[in-house]
Amino acid sequence: MAFPVQRKRRLRATESLRSLVRETRLHPAQLILPLFVAPGEGVRKEIESMPGNCQLSIDQLLKECADLESLGIGGIILFGIPETKDEQASGAYDDNGIVQSAVRALKSEYPKLVVITDVCNCEYTSHGHCGKIVDGDVDNDATLEWLAKTAVSHARAGADIVAPSDMMDGRVAAIRKALDDNGFQKTPILSYAAKFASVFYGPFREAAESAPQFGDRRSYQMDPANAREAIQEMELDLEEGADMLMVKPAMPYLDIIREARSRFHVPIAAYQVSGEFSMIKAAARNGWLDGERAIVESLTSIHRAGAGIILTYFAKEAARLIG
């Protein structure tokens, strides 16, 4: 039998050839670094389940962001740890709240840095749920008012993008109307449109001190088994005024990312969440895999599936590897 004319290995022979024909290319500008801001000064409290990540006071947050521009990273997303919590999540929409104060400091120090703010309530409620509790459950419509006030407060502080992550029905429309009514027509909304009730959020709940004090979040976050519903959630958010759509988590939901990219002509983001990060870190620390290669391979798979924006705790490390 004659040898096949096509020898696919021809173009794999050297790194230069492999680079020349590479189909998917990561760039630091696609990466968003999640950061946790806490009250106080000089605070740099390591998160045990997320090695290398810390709760940071504002002065330390500014130091953490010092080299982002030189690394070419696309921006940051902020999560707040308030000094006190209550049943009304009042710290979320306080104009002098921790996130609002951090945004003002960041935009003063680094005016070109893209600052995204997470719009949710779980870090601010004493019960750890994402909205107002009525008769033992999260009241969807009552929670919309909190979310709208929070988004406006973040925009007033200088946030470039607001990102609602609560999964309440109608939240994008409520936030869009509130932003527009308050003069923030130009502030984009990055919607956590398909956010699944995932086991991979575990380490984040330590980082953000946001574990629910009773029950779970499965009555508002999505069932991991449902793909068609995820697409419908995205369609609804676009109808309500979302400018960008996010899938969370990333690697267990690459099929959802691919479907979103095929269907929707808006930027698609994906969140490589805390559990994804911690698994790779733990395996690398135990010598079970090459950590640097795992970082690049995992992020490449997310981008290849269709995410043009990737939220990842590996942002700095990855930028150095691919930059």
Give a concise summary.
The chain is an alpha/beta fold. The protein has helices spanning 15-20, 58-64, 68-71, 98-109, 140-157, 171-181, 202-207, 228-240, 254-263, 274-285, 291-305, 315-322, and strands spanning 31-37, 44-46, 54-56, 75-80, 115-119, 133-134, 137-138, 161-164, 190-195, 244-248, 268-272, 309-312.
Outline the low-pLDDT stretches: none
Helical/strand content category: alpha/beta
| Portion of residues within helices | 25-40%
- Report the mean per-residue pLDDT as an integer: 95
Globular, elongated, flat, extended or rod-shaped: what is the shape?
globular
According to CATH, the fold-level topology is TIM Barrel
Brief descriptors of the model:
323 residues; two-stranded antiparallel ribbon; TIM Barrel; alpha/beta; 12 helices; 12 strands
Polypeptide structure, described:
There is one protein chain. This protein has 323 residues and is of the alpha/beta class. It has one domain (24-322): TIM Barrel, CATH 3.20.20.70. The chain contains twelve helices and twelve strands. It has helices at residues 15-20, 58-64, 68-71, 98-109, 140-157, 171-181, 202-207, 228-240, 254-263, 274-285, 291-305, 315-322, and strands at residues 31-37, 44-46, 54-56, 75-80, 115-119, 133-134, 137-138, 161-164, 190-195, 244-248, 268-272, 309-312. The strands form two sheets. Strands 1, 2, 3, 4, 5, 8, 9, 10, 11 and 12 form a ten-stranded mixed β-sheet that branches. A two-stranded antiparallel sheet has the order 6-7. Helix 10 (274-285) packs antiparallel against helix 11. The longest helix has 18 residues, at 140-157. The mean pLDDT is 95.
